[in-house]
Amino acid sequence: MQAAYLDVIALIERLHRQFLEVVKLELDTQGVHDINNVQAMILFNIGDLEMTVGELTLRGCYLGSNVSYNVKKMVEADYLVQERSAHDRRSVRVRLSEKGQALRQKIVKMHERHVEALAKGPLTEQDLTSAFAALRRLDRFWTTTVELGARAAQFTPAA
Q1: How large is the greatest C-alpha to C-alpha distance in the chain, in angstroms?
Q2: 152 pLDDT band (50/70/90 cuts)?
Q3: Residue 10: which pLDDT band, with cuts at 50, 70 and 90?
Q4: In 10 A of CB 87, how many CB atoms?
Q5: CA atoms within 13 A on the CB side of 120
Q6: Which of 21, 35, 66, 141 could lock 158 by a disulfide, CB 3.0 to 4.6 Å apart?
Q7: For 88-98, what is each residue's pLDDT tens digit?
Q8: Rg (CA), the chain
Q9: To the nearest whole percent, how much of the chain has pLDDT over 70?
């Protein structure tokens, strides 16, 4: 069990880095050089929503990145529109600009191409569903560990 657990942790890290490389390649192919791969994924995750930087941080996985810094850079590059909340002047909300929406569509198309390619070969929908279910249970275990502390999680089954 220990070897499998450590293998999964290493693979998760590797997959995350590899996926960011895939996004970087897509940006390069599309001739997009004023935004990086992490910023592109932040845009993708914002989608059609308007949210605060705090909500954005909770929503995505931006390993090794400072979301506030990336939001500032994307506002400067015209990918995001930033506005103070009408209800709470301390809160700043962000949404995609037209330029941000156009880039998000390119990322959507990339995902669509990947799904089409996967459907022809290496993985089935069932494979992905099973992998997601296992990773979701691991996520719940780690969330419980963080929320209750390492000792408490030893006794809490990850459903």
Answers
A1: 52
A2: low
A3: very high
A4: 7
A5: 5
A6: 141
A7: 767 788 999 99
A8: 18
A9: 89
- Indicate whether this model's pTM tops 0.85: no
95: alpha, beta or left, given left = phi > 0 and alpha = psi -120 to 50? beta
Domains in the chain, CATH or no CATH each = 2-97 (1.10.10.10)
CA atoms of 70 and 74, how far apart (whole Å): 6
Q: What is the mean pLDDT of residues 109-126?
A: 93
Burial of 5 (C-beta count, 10 Å sphere; 0-12/13-18/19+): exposed
All residues at 6 or more sequence positions from 119 whose CB lies less than 8 Å from its CB, including other chains:
125
